[in-house]
Amino acid sequence: MSRLTITLDDDLHRALKEASARQGRPIGKLIEESLRLRGIKPTEDARELVERARSNAALTEVQALELADDEVAQTRQKR
Fold first, then answer.
1. Across residues 8-19, what is the average pLDDT?
2. DSSP code for 9
């Protein structure tokens, strides 16, 4: 398991510590869960998700990649 040092606003750090105590779970677990909820997952999880979506949509790999490229381009244009 890797270690990471981050800098947080004091109020956010305090809120995180309070949530950890209230839930009886380590801060690291709360952060991991939050990252996963934001869609930050290991590459293999992402690959499995893409493969499952592609097979459910009955797309070829090329079609799936083209669709993904289009979606990324549209999202970037909205920013």
1. 96
2. -
| Residues contacting residue 74 through CB under 8 Å, at least 6 positions apart | none
> Which spans in the chain are helix H?
10-23, 27-37, 43-57, 61-78
| Residue-wise pLDDT tens digits, 31-50 | 999 998 887 877 676 677 77
8 Å CB contact between 30 and 23: yes
- 3-class secondary structure, 51: helix
Query: For the whole model, what pTM was predicted?
Result: 0.53
What are the structure tokens assigned to 53, written together? 């979506």
Indicate the fold that domain 1-40 takes in CATH: Arc Repressor Mutant (1.10.1220)
Map out the domains of the chain as residue ranges.
1-40, 43-78
Residue 34: name the closest of 49, 22, 19 by CA. Answer: 19
Residue 30's φ and ψ, nearest 5 degrees, are: -65, -40
